[in-house]
């Protein structure tokens, strides 16, 4: 029996970080096993990719829940419990989570953000970095706490900003760094969860 940490990945769209995590978790000795992929968006491309990799993939559309974000998250939480998930990795999950959900998964949920936090929390980071004239940009993986993009940092990777960058060219360079960083940080988080099991 494997003692790998049962991990769910939550996505809203493309799922390229999900792909990187699936590839890493296929390596022998990787401490996390991806057992479930959840999305608020039934059209998320990553759902099909997860199923192709033999991973349970569920969409819980947030729209019928209207303003009741917690009711939507209670359904997600039930799915996580049913799959006996121990660690949640947000990978392009584009909804702000309620204090209820964050509290429930405190110390057991991580997120990737496309900036060098604490600089540039929130949306449109690449355009804002260019606007600010920064010469270094990057990405961060952090534990999720109630403040948006504010929890303790697990790891960061930097990339140069080039003179002729557009938001899209910069996003593509940061995304490559994300795909290297997230598996390393998921492994670190899984080791932390595993230590706490004992
Ligand atoms: C990634 O760049 C990720 O850092 C970002 O969304 C993209 C998802 O891409 N996340 C956020 O902005 C969270 N606030 P992917 O679906 O291809 O992994």
List each distinct ligand once.
Answer: glycinamide ribonucleotide
Helix content: 25-40%
Describe the biggest sheet?
7 strands, mixed
Mean pLDDT: 97
Strand content: 15-25%
* General form: globular
Number of strands: 7
Which parts are unreliable, with pLDDT below 50 for 5 consecutive residues or more?
A: none
Supply Rg. 16 Å
SS element count, helices: 6
Q: Termini, distance in Å?
A: 16 Å
How would you describe the overall organization of this protein?
With 198 residues, the chain is of the alpha/beta class. Helices cover 39% and strands 22% of the residues. It has six helices and seven strands; from the N terminus they run E-H-E-H-E-H-E-H-E-H-E-E-H. It has helices spanning 16-25, 45-52, 69-82, 99-104, 125-132, 167-197; strands at residues 5-11, 32-39, 56-59, 87-90, 109-113, 136-143, 153-160. The chain has a seven-stranded mixed beta sheet, with helices on both faces. Helix 2 links the parallel strand 2 and strand 3 (56-59). Helix 1 crosses helix 6 (167-197). The structure holds glycinamide ribonucleotide. Glycinamide ribonucleotide (GAR) binds at residues 11, 13-17, 91-92, 112-114, 175, 178.
């Amino acid at each position: 029996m494997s003692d790998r940490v049962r991990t769910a990945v939550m996505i809203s769209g493309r799922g390229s970080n999900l792909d990187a995590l699936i590839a890493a978790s296929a390596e022998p000795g990787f401490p996390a096993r991806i057992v479930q992929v959840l999305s608020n968006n039934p059209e998320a491309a990553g759902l099909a990719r997860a199923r192709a990799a033999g991973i349970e993939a569920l969409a819980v559309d947030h729209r019928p829940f209207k303003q009741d974000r917690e009711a939507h998250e209670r359904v997600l939480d039930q799915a996580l419990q049913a799959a006996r998930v121990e660690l949640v990795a947000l990978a392009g999950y584009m909804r702000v989570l309620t204090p209820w959900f964050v509290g429930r998964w405190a110390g057991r949920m991580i997120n990737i953000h496309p900036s060098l936090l604490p600089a540039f929390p929130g949306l449109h980071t690449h355009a804002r970095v260019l606007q600010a004239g920064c010469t270094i940009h990057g990405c961060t993986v952090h534990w999720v706490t109630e403040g948006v993009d504010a929890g303790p940092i697990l790891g960061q990777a930097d990339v140069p900003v080039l003179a002729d960058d557009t938001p899209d060219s910069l996003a593509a360079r940061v995304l490559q760094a994300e795909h290297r960083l997230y598996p390393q940080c998921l492994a670190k988080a899984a080791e932390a969860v595993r230590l706490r099991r004992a």
